[in-house]
Amino acid sequence: MTPENSLVHAYLKTHPETRSAVNGTLLGNFTSGDDLVDKHLAPMIAWVYGKIADQVSPSELAETQARMYIEELSVFARYNAQFLKAAATNVEGFCPELAHELRRNHLEEGGERGKVPAHYVLYSNALLSDLGLLVNGHVPAPETALLVEMHQWMVGSHMPSLIAGSYYATEAVAIAETELLREITDRYGELTIQASGSALKKLDYYYRLHLDDDHDAAQVDGLSVEAAHIEGLAQFIRKADLFHIDLPQALDGFLQIMEAMTHWWTQLAHRAQEMN
Ligand SMILES: [Fe+2]
Ligand SMILES: [Fe+2]
Asked: Is the pTM of this model over 0.85?
C-alpha cells in the first residue's frame, strides 16, 4: 500500500479533522482517547469498509470468485485464537486488565469447555455442511499470509500499548467483515444450491452468534459478541491514562493493523478481478 492506493490515506486526505487528530496523537498533543475512538477511528473504519464492500460487490461475484474469498477469509479465523492467547500472555505483566480482556476473547474464539466450541471449528464445519466447502487445509494466498504474518509480528511486540491499539483495530473491523462475509457465503449458496440466509442453518447460527445482541453466547448486556469485543478493547484507548496505555503507540498499532486489513481486502479484490 502506498499513500496513493491506501484507503486509510484516502480517508485522511478527505477528512482533515481526522488527519490532524491522527498527526496530533502521534506527535503527543492530541490526548482524548474518547474523541479518537468516537470521532475519528470508528468513522474511519465505517467509511473504509463501505469502500471495501463496494470493491467486493458480493452480489456480482461468480462462483469461483466467491469461493476464493471464502477460502481466504477462513484463514484468519484459523489463527485468531492463538494470536489472542499470545497477546494476552505478552501484556499480562504490564496491563492485567488488557490481558484479561484478550483472554476472554481467546476463550470465546478458541472454545471454552462447557460453552461454545471454537469459532473456527463452528465456521469451517458450517461451510462443509451447508455448502460442501472444505477450507480446513487451504493454503493461503500471499496477501492472506502477509496479513497473518503482520498479526504474528504484532502479538510478539515488546510494546503492550501497540498491542492494545492493534487489537482494537482487529476487533473493530470484525462486524463489518462478518457482514460482508455473510453476503459472500449467501452469494455462493445462491449460485450453487439456491439457498441463502437462514436456509444455510449452520452458517446462520455462526453469524447470529457474532452479530445478535440477544444471542445466548453474548456475555455483555445489550451487546453482541463482536460489539462486546470492540467496546472491550476500545476501553484501553478511551481510558489510556488509567491503564497507562501510551496513546501514540496505541495509534501506531491501530494504523499498522488497519492498513494491513485494508491492503488485504484490496488485494483480494484484485485477485477476484483477475479471475474474471
Ligand atoms: Fe468469532
Ligand atoms: Fe471478535
From this structure: yes
